[in-house]
Specification:
By secondary structure, this protein is an alpha+beta fold. It is about 15% helix and about 30% strand. Helix 5 packs parallel to helix 6 and helix 7 packs parallel to helix 8. The protein is globular and about 75 Å long.
Length: about 800
Amino acid sequence: MKKNRLFLATLTLAATLSAQNSYQIDITKVRTDVMRGHLDLGGRSVNGDTIGVNSFYIERNGKPIIPVIGEFHFSRYPHQYWDEELKKLKAGGISVVATYAFWNMHEPKEGVFNWSGDYDVRRFVELCRKNGLDVLMRIGPFAHGEIRSGGLPDWLYGRPIEVRTNDAGYLFYANRLYQEIGKQLRGLMFKDGGPVIGVQIENEYQHSAAPWGISYMDAPRERTVGRRDNKITQDGVGINNAGNEFADVGRDHMKTLKQLAIKAGLVTPIYTATGWGRATIIEKGSIPVMAGYAYPFWSKGTDPSPFYTYKDIQQKPDYSPVSYDVNLYPSMAAELGTGMANIYSRRPHVLGESFLPMMVRTVGSGTNGLGFYMYHGGTTPSVGNFFFAEGWGLHNKSYDYQAPIGEFGQMSKGFYSLKLINYFLSAFGNELAPLHTILPVGSDTIKPTNTTTLRYAVRGDGEKGFLFMHNFQDHIAISELKGLKVDIATKSGSVSFPETGTFTLKTGASAIFPFNLNMDGVEVRMATVQPFFRFTNQGKRYNVLVSIDGIAPEMVLKGKVKVTGSGMKTFTRNGNTVVAFPIGKIGEMQINGVSFLVLPWEQALNAYLVGKENQHLVISKSVVLDGEKISLICKNGEAVDVAVYPSVKEISATSAVVKKTVAPLPNMTQRTISIPTVEPKLQLVQADDRHFVLKAPDMDWSKVNDVFVTFDYRGDRALCMMNGELQTDNLYSSQPWTIGLKRYSDALKTNEMYFYFMPMAKDAPYLSYLDKEVIPDFGNKKEFLEIKKPVISVEYKVEITWK
């Protein structure tokens, strides 16, 4: 009897373990309805191009698209380098640049506008057009963006008007601002054939505000809102469960602002407005944009966020409840926290590894617009030591934001992984956008702290679609998930991932796998490789896919298909053709004139798409910029391998030595490019335990692209001063501090640069936000400061051509 009970218990345990690793989802009853013609959005250009908006997605020239939006504030970066930085956004897979016109920077003195130099919005938008990037112009009047008074000019303060309302005095000034922006952007609207496809009206209206910059120590914060709205306004992004008793007048104000924008010539097919936390939108006249910040500085604590668990994000937006009917609008997550600012008392360290899993979760949950805030960091302008930054514990100058592209144009780890989803959305958005999210039964019970259950969802139409999954959660430890299998019930039968055996989803990993998908005429039953991008060269179609560590890379093609190629094996299973690709190596196959290239994960991180008509894939650890000429951005003059696919006859480079090397495939050309090193003529001297002095009067900047100084220190904060003015600053948040010197090249000819470090206090309020391994052992000491030897690195730009 005991043996029987033991046997039954063993069977029960085995069944339980099996149930934890085997997952089933039925997509046969998915909704597919789309409402059209009900929104006051959309438009046609003089060239005949069209943009339309329905209840679920955006269309361009009648085809569904998913825009990939990268936030880059032109006024926070030197205008001399805008072109190169925009090329970096394009290299990262960005299709739309979102940027602010901060009112207080453009009209610091009443009636006197400044649109020159770093404030030249027209020049910035023209460069976006030159680089093939669309623009979402955020025109305020209120912006926030960690800018002083949220962008409202100081001269508005104290006047007998109610800001951010329909007060006649406020509308007079807001209209004048809009008219000025309209003049600057004349001829650049989408309707005129220009790149400006969208305008955001206001920001976080009737949800959030900034404090007025004119205030007093210990005084209550006076927010930049009308007194009526003060009781419903909060600091930062959050949830509003209290409701909005002023919603009617709020909607009227937003409608009024849109009318003023249109009268100013800011006519675009898309208008957006903040949608989260009951923020007020323009009803049927704007797309409500959503947000997700897993590492916010405005809330205390480091609890795991809900932004890594799947949901139907259109029906249940993040930071719900919302003020609008969710069935009328597409979901557009335009402010996903790829990074975060810090304040003195709270310093979240945003892991670059966190970026991609959040995006996979958000797209899998149904968003049809993906936006990153920030995508490119910068430095907030100042006049002398009068700062346009918000203050209140934030950096006075730095707006690095721990973004994919940092304050000085340097790439972080998150830049490379985000390319995988950015390129995917650009290439496969037309197939993905109409597909609705289907969640497994019980998914709503999965909490952020549950690290043993697979997090996944499907976007499909009942027959075809994509499987989305990831294994990441902020602020807690995650282990790899082993022995996994996912069965999807479609209208034509079940599809299993994988078809035989199981897979492992490693810690931090994510995957997007297609099923029942037609890829350029090739019927793919299922694949355990992730679609990356597609392109055309000499009239031939190429599809690039990515293999995921821990998952055997296979493509199952419907029926018996003739396959050729290299680095792969084929066999038949259940009447279908199975193509097995090598693990950790590049594989290629051709079917009916269509090529499929499978890249291992690490090589995919270094892959770029370049060209317009005859496009190529370029793989290099250098950053590859596409323009009139193709450029490589690399550091320290190291020899870098460059692979071009499909193959070319020869590769040449300016000011570099090119050596032939063996490519991993016959249809790929590979070369090693050796860049001559330049010894930077600068001196960096440690004056004492807290100060460094930099001198570079004889530096030849013509032979380098930039020079970076990196301080690996542990302390409270660090500042960079020159000519008596603060250049940038750093609130220590577990990471080294890097400063680019290129922008200071002229000033360094006659000025010294000073770096000043302050020690960390034993009772500092931010210690719980730091990575455990960097928190010092204070012992009996009350403060701690450690500065390792600074590292100087040289960045080069090399132009390459091929034929």
